[in-house]
TrEMBL record:
The lineage of its organism: Bacteria, Bacillati, Actinomycetota, Actinomycetes, Bifidobacteriales. Residues 21-211 form the MacB-like periplasmic core domain. The chain crosses the membrane at residues 279-303, 323-354, 366-390, 424-443, 463-486, 518-540, 789-814, 837-862, 882-900. It comes from Bifidobacterium jacchi. This is ABC transporter permease. PANTHER family: LIPOPROTEIN-RELEASING SYSTEM TRANSMEMBRANE PROTEIN LOLE (PTHR30489).
Length: 917
């Protein structure tokens, strides 16, 4: 029977190819997911142990042993490890004490701060490589990172000054310096010192000098790096034992791999990697589930097409069990072959990604292709199991064939077309349960938010899970009942399409012949489109909701703060596309009393009049005036929302006390000394530039206006006449550039405006860009990145579903061979037959696509309300762009999918087709 199964597979190879491609894509995705996880873990382990260079073993203090002062030195030095004795042990190819120092490299008035390590006779144990010149071999030499050399304009042979600041035993800061010669240029290929832009290498005497010790043997060395020959495991183990015997008490030797594993475990990165793997695998399983629908269609038609062959086999003695096993074996072979090819494709794709350097772009420093058993076993097992499960229904159908059917004419579409009552009951029950669960979650959350009790009850997580479960139940119910409602949709749309012409009429008639296959094909596409639309709608809702929420919390779209901004950069900022208007103002931090009498800090901003503010602020300032004796203060304080309404009370404006970096009493002392004319104290100078000077006895009348955050650092802001900054009442401590931004009118994006603004003020020392645009740009960047990732993953399922459309058309052509031949015989042209198949494909894809977009939009709105209603008024948009792209892609792909079946349909002469049918 197995040989017969193989012959049947060969005869039906063209029908099995689309199903095999669907399996291949799903299994390739799963295999690539495991390889991605392996590479990321390996990259992370390499990065975390990059400072060990090529060491195979590391000697360090044993943290699991409690030692006393006699058992181990408190501060291990190079002399602690007796390097000569360890180097003499057989099997030790290299040894290096891990010494370093934080240094500042200066040349021609410029300086760069970085990290330096000591030299080593064994270059493989240096975490950096010498790309040019040579390693410092004598005294007073240094090898610099390329970035430092470029930044300071240095080359090999130049002189530089190296300094280091350290505290002595008395707590005093001591500056140590040395003039050294550049002997080489270093490279940091593994990212050991990426935070510093690379690492320098210093001669032993300079390392000792920077550490404040007499000679190199007294330099602190927390670790010892060893390169042990591992060719013979027994000999390597003996070498490790000998080295362990030479170590001081309280120290241990461990393999580099074991230390890397512990680092990853302590960091929690292994858990993070497993979560990422699980997340990606879920999309691979989804892809295989969609592929299962395609496979089920394929085997249904295969069995229907082979009814006469199966009946003949029954006639000559084949048993039902043999027919059942034959179909299952065919599915198993198809699944095995396709899965193996899928694993090979997944490995090939990941190899191209890794060797193409894409892993570096994803955050890894180095990446290797790590092949483990899950890469092979899991995808193949999934592929075979899903294929076999998808074929079981067709296998049961094969056992129902009777020997007498061998004498009947072939009817390829007489399989069961109507779904059972059990499916209807189960699907309806799931729909009702899902609607109730989702409705209750929305109703309950709305009530908690309206009453302000959401934070007190702590029931939000359970409501969110209930809404997710409800949405899942609704979706599953719709898929279970798809055999009922999707053919109805097709029939309704087909009735309209049939009016176009004879080709559309025939397409409508053909698509109604097998409702179950139509439902299965449509459901496969429905899954992918619904998920894409859900994510796109949720992302659009999130961006719009958070954008409006942040806009309501900020009255100024964007602000740049600094001690003083250059005129050139201010002018350039005003020309950035998307920036409507700007206002450059002086600022100072002051102290006032709040309505309760408690002191609070306030940022004073000088403006000419309210008309200036109207140009840059999004607030209702109609009827508001600002006199020389008034200050315009916000009605509600940021953070706690405290009302700042004073009535006709005049407020005393004092110098700000308790600014960052100095306690309140110190600030008060500094102010008193400055008032007395003592301007020599550095701390007092700092107080002047940090808070600004306020004239003694300065008072203003507060006027309220309902504007929101202007400064990201101050919870209260007050606008005063800029004459106070020119007549000596207030001495400015900083300046601020206020801006109104409208990206929609300018045809740009928030991210572009933010990035250009950062670039514009990158050379203004201390300049900081803040405002709603900054937060909105950050938020939108995160959402857009996740949107691209998720849609890219779900696109795999959509691709498989479109393969299913092509498969359905191919099978339909095979079924309707006699019908197509008859149509050709009575005068239907090849073009009309092609158009009928194109219309059929379009109906399948567009009806399923539109249904998926409607469902996805509703699910997206549900998810958005459950998540974003905590932050503000939720927006319920429709992402026309992505939904339109999905429909367009589905339509184009459907037309492309109809080309090969149409060629097959019109390629057979009518007489020959009638004879074969």
């Amino acid at each position: 029977m197995f040989s017969i199964t193989i012959k049947l597979m060969r005869k039906s190879a063209r029908m099995l190819i689309p199903a095999g491609i669907a399996i291949l894509i799903g299994t390739a995705f799963i295999a690539a997911t495991f390889l991605f996880s392996n590479s990321m873990s390996d990259s992370l382990r390499s990065q975390m142990t990059a400072s060990y260079a090529d060491a195979t073993h590391v000697v360090s203090r044993d943290s699991s042993v409690v030692t006393n002062a006699d058992a181990a030195p408190e501060t291990p030095t190079v002399a602690t490890f007796r390097l000569d004795r360890i180097r003499a042990v057989h099997g030790v190819r290299g040894v290096r004490a891990d010494t370093n120092a934080s240094i500042t490299i200066s040349a021609d008035g410029r300086s760069v701060t970085g990290i330096a390590i000591g030299t080593s006779p064994d270059r493989s144990l240096l975490p950096v490589t010498i790309s040019q010149g040579e390693q410092p071999s004598g005294d007073d030499r240094i090898a610099l990172p390329q970035s430092v050399a470029n930044g300071l304009g240095l080359k090999i042979g130049d002189k530089v000054r190296v300094t280091s600041e350290q505290q002595n035993t008395n707590g005093e800061t001591v500056n140590r310096r040395a003039d050294v010669t550049v002997s080489g240029i270093t490279d940091d290929p593994k990212g050991a010192f990426s935070f510093y832009g690379g690492g320098s290498v210093l001669s032993d005497n300079v390392i000792a000098q920077m550490n404040g010790v007499a000679d190199f043997s007294h330099v602190v060395a927390p670790m010892l790096l060893l390169d042990i020959d591992g060719g013979d495991s027994a000999a390597a183990s003996q070498t490790v034992d000998e080295v362990r015997g030479l170590l001081p008490s309280g120290y241990t030797i461990d393999t580099r791999t074991a230390i890397g594993d512990r680092m990853i475990a302590n960091l929690g990165a292994d858990q993070s990697t497993s979560i990422t793997t699980t997340f990606l695998l879920s999309f691979g399983v989804l892809a295989l589930f969609v592929a299962a629908l395609v496979i089920a269609n394929t085997f249904q038609v295969l069995v229907a097409q082979r009814r006469r062959t199966l009946a003949l086999l029954r006639t000559i003695g084949a048993k039902k069990g043999q027919l059942y096993a034959s179909v299952v074996a065919e599915a198993m072979l198809l699944g095995m072959i396709s899965s193996v090819l899928g694993v090979a494709v997944g490995i090939g794709l990941m190899a191209a990604v890794i060797h193409g350097g894409m892993m570096r772009m994803l955050g890894g420093t180095v990446a290797n292709l790590i092949l483990t058993w899950p890469v092979f076993v899991v995808p193949i097992a999934f592929g075979v199991i899903m294929t076999v499960l998808a074929s079981l229904s067709s296998a049961r159908t094969a056992t129902s064939v009777t020997p007498l059917e061998a004498l009947r004419p072939i009817e390829l579409v007489d399989a069961e077309r109507h779904a059972g009552k059990g499916r209807a009951v189960i699907g309806t029950f799931m729909l009702v349960i899902g609607l109730v669960a989702a409705g209750f979650a929305v109703w309950r959350l709305h009530g908690l938010i309206a009453s302000g009790a959401i934070a007190e009850t702590g029931g939000y997580p359970s409501l969110l899970l209930l809404a997710i479960a409800g949405a899942a139940a609704i979706f599953l119910g719709l898929m279970v009942t798809a055999t009922f409602w999707m053919p109805l949709l097709m029939r309704g749309i087909g009735a309209l399409v049939a009016r176009i012409g004879p080709s559309a009429t025939i397409a409508n008639s053909n698509i109604q012949k097998n409702p179950r296959r139509v439902a299965a094909t449509g459901t496969a596409l429905l899954i992918g489109v619904t998920l894409v639309s859900t994510i796109a709608t949720g992302a659009a809702s999130g961006k719009q909701t958070m954008g409006e929420t942040l806009a309501n919390r900020y009255s100024v779209d964007m602000a740049v703060t600094g001690e003083k901004l250059s005129d050139k950069n201010i002018a350039q900022a005003a020309k950035i596309r998307g920036v409507e208007s700007t206002l450059y103002v002086p600022t100072a931090i002051a102290t006032i009393d709040d309505p309760k009498g408690d002191q609070m800090s306030v940022l004073l901003i000088g403006v000419r009049d309210v008309s200036q503010l109207k140009g840059v602020m999004r607030a209702d300032l109609d009827g508001v005036t600002l006199g020389n004796d008034e200050m315009l203060i916000q009605t509600y304080r940021g953070g706690d929302g405290e009302r700042l309404v004073y009535g006709d009370k005049r407020l005393k404006i004092s110098e700000f006390e308790g600014y960052a970096g100095m306690p309140s009493d110190a600030a008060g002392t500094a102010d008193a000394e400055d008032a007395a004319g003592d301007a020599g104290d550095a701390g007092n100078d700092q107080s002047d530039t940090s808070a600004g000077r306020i004239r003694a006895g300065f008072e203003l009348t507060p006027v309220n206006a309902d504007f929101r955050n202007v400064s990201a650092d101050q919870s209260a802001v007050a606008f005063v006449s800029d004459t106070h900054f020119t007549n000596g009442d207030i001495t400015a401590s900083g300046h601020m550039l206020l801006m109104r931004v409208d990206v929609d009118k300018a045809g740009t994006t928030l991210s572009d405006v933010f990035e250009q603004m950062q670039n514009t003020f990158s050379y203004d020392t201390g300049a900081v860009v803040t405002g709603s645009v900054v937060e909105r740009a950050t938020w939108e960047t995160i959402i857009d990145s996740m949107l691209k990732l998720l849609i890219g993953l779900i696109a795999v399922a959509v691709l498989i579903a479109l393969i299913g459309v092509a498969n359905t058309l191919s099978l339909s052509v095979i079924e309707r061979t006699r019908e197509s031949a008859t149509l050709r015989a009575i005068g239907m042209t090849r073009g009309q037959l092609r158009r009928s198949l194109a219309v059929e494909a379009l109906m399948l894809s567009l009806v399923a696509g539109v249904a998926g977009i409607v469902l996805g939009t509703l699910f997206g709105w549900l998810g958005s309300y459950m998540v974003f209603s905590l932050y503000g008024e939720v927006a319920f948009p429709i992402d026309w762009t992505i939904n339109g792209i999905v429909l367009a892609v589905a339509a184009v792909a459907a037309l492309v999918a109809s080309v090969a079946p149409a060629r097959r349909a019109v390629g057979v002469p009518p007489v020959e087709a009638l004879a074969e049918a």
